[in-house]
Amino acid sequence: MTQASRPSAPTTESAFSLATIGHVASDYPDKFGIPRQPGLAPSARAILYLAPTFDDPLAVEGLEAMTHLWLTFVFDRSPENWTPRVRPPRLGGNQRIGVFASRSTHRPNRLGLSLVELVGVECTPKPSPAQMPIAGSRLAQRQSRVKLHLRGHDLCDATPILDIKPYLPWAESRPEAGAGFAPSPPPQHRVTFSVAANDALQRHPDGESLSRLIEEVLAQDPRPAYHGGTPSTSNRREATKRYGVFLRDVNVRFRVAEHHGETEIHVETIEPR
Which domain does 74 fall in, by range? Predict the structure, then answer.
């Protein structure tokens, strides 16, 4: 075997340097309200703008034939420190399990993986804004040659992306797989809108799409896990408490009530933010 054909020796490095290939403009300006898994809010829009070093239409040639993508990203809003055990929301926020048995954002390297729907590939000869920018995003005026339009994601606005890979259902779909403490999707709750909230949606330029997004996000009850399933006295106290979640360019104010064991989430107001 010649020296040129010898396999490279295993690396002994304990750290690697990774380059951000782009950032996403997202319907979620803040962490609160983001679904805990991708695909739970199909109406959620995002645009991935490639960074200058990688902003070449040739890099996404053939991607338009794909319908779904894997995005590797960084939980950049999570602390850098981590612990061996975490408290998943699906276990009520109190029971602990190992961090590697969870999908917690508080993990070594802060890496995330999201399966998203690819709606379209927008390429231009020179860097330019997106044809349909995300309202309220801090990246709404971002310019690039390559812009990937996405849906059904779970990414906060301006999240850094490290890699893009096509999703191959024949290789990666395993319906028979065991899912441990999360064997099924989270429960969906009834969402209602006040007259004032409906009026605000009627006036909004994208009111129909925004209404769907609000309902999809709130139906999952975005409050911290320890707020749910509490005794009746706590439920009465919770019914008087108001919450707010930022979505796109609005602040959605809502409250949660229990009716005969059923959770109802009522949107009171929708205000510009």
Answer: 18-172
